[in-house]
Structure formats: C-alpha cells, structure tokens
Design brief:
Order of helices and strands: HEHEHEHEEHHEEH
Oligomer: single chain
Strand content: 5-15%
Distance between the termini: 57 Å
Number of helices: 7
Radius of gyration: 19 Å
Strand order of the largest sheet: 2-1-3
Structural class: alpha/beta
Largest sheet: 3 strands, parallel
Length: 206
C-alpha cells in the first residue's frame, strides 16, 4: 500500500461530493478497497466523519471490484461516486462507455469553493483533429456543469442538457456513437443542432 492521502485532502473531496449530491438525488457512494488497503480504511473513516455534516444525503460504501461490476450491471444504483484518483480514473472511463462513447463524458476538477477546470474527460484526441468527426457533446455538457456547479445557474445548465437529449432523440449521431437507423453528422453539425435547439426553446419560453 503506497498510496498517501491526508485527512484534509479526503475531507475536501468528500465535501465536494456531498455538495454535488445535494444538487442531484442526494446519494453518494464512496468506493474503496478498505478490506485490503489501510489507506482506504482511513479514506472510509474520513468520508463517514464528513457525512455527519450532511444528514440529508444518503451514503453507502462499496469495494471497487464490486463497484466496477455494479456500474455495468445496474448503473442506476449510482448517482455521485467519490473515490481516490486511481479508482476514479478507471471507473470514469467505464461509466463513459455506458453512454456509448467517452466523447459523451463531461468532467470538472473543482476546488473547495466549487471553482475549477471544466473539460471533456477524454482529452484532446489529436489523431482526429481537423477531421470534423469529434463528438462535441462532452464539451457542451462540461459547459452545463460549469453553469450548475460554479456559476449557480441550474436552469441554464438544464436547458443545455435538455437540448442535448433532444438532439439525440432526433437521431443525430457523430461517428463514435453512430449506428444503423441514426443520422451521422459532423462535429459542427452536432454543435449547431444543439445551439438551434437551445435557441428555439429560449424563444418559445420568452
């Protein structure tokens, strides 16, 4: 066991998880390997201690191997997952594929004040740069996360997320999520479709 986490580090990310859960369905799953690694017994104890400040949020603990299985078997069991860097890196890629592509997954690196860096979790993908085939939805959904968590504009975030769902319901797909019976579109066409949907709903509501 060579991992090292200080109590303030664990407390910080636990607070972020519980605060995020309060804006969602008020459920947090802490993923660890406390039955093998002493570091994660410490992690589990600190997360449990922080949870006392959030009595309105449900907390459960799960070993990482079971979490990996349950994420595939019954993903609706989860809402907010809090875990260490290595396990989080693995589980986030696994979760991305539940949507069909890692190009669908937004991400945020937040500090204790809910400020941070928002970006697609898949990185820059230089091998497809300029080809017009990249999926822009992770970037768009990252902007929605920024509105919700850092700028405290949940209605604006929901409008973007709803537009993405609407465009997908229309059958538009970039190459990474395309299948028979859907319409393959370019990066720009997908982005333009989301913008058009947001604009349409905004005009309708006003």
């Amino acid at each position: 066991d060579t991992m090292r986490y200080s109590k303030p580090e664990i407390e910080r990310i636990a607070h972020v998880a519980f605060q995020a859960a309060r804006k969602r369905s008020k459920r947090v799953t802490s993923v660890d390997k406390a039955n093998v690694l002493e570091t994660f017994q410490f992690w589990k104890d600190v997360v449990t201690e922080v949870h006392q400040q959030y009595p309105d949020v449900e907390l459960d603990h799960m070993y990482v191997d079971n979490a990996a299985m349950q994420l595939v078997k019954a993903p609706k069991k989860f809402d907010v997952i809090v875990t260490g860097n290595m396990f989080g890196d693995i589980l986030s890629d696994e979760a991305a594929m539940l949507t069909g592509s890692i190009g669908m997954l937004p991400s945020a690196s937040l500090n204790a004040q809910n400020k941070g860096l928002y970006e697609p979790s898949h990185g820059s993908a230089p091998d497809i740069a300029g080809k017009g085939i990249a999926n822009p939805l992770a970037t768009i959904l990252s902007a929605a996360m920024m509105l919700r968590f850092s700028l405290n504009q949940p209605q604006a975030a929901a409008r973007i997320e709803s537009a993405v769902q609407s465009v997908l319901a229309q059958g538009l797909r970039t190459a990474d999520i395309w299948s028979e019976g859907t319409k393959k579109v370019s990066t720009r066409e997908m982005g333009d479709a989301v913008v058009a949907t947001i604009t349409k709903t905004t005009i309708t509501k006003s």
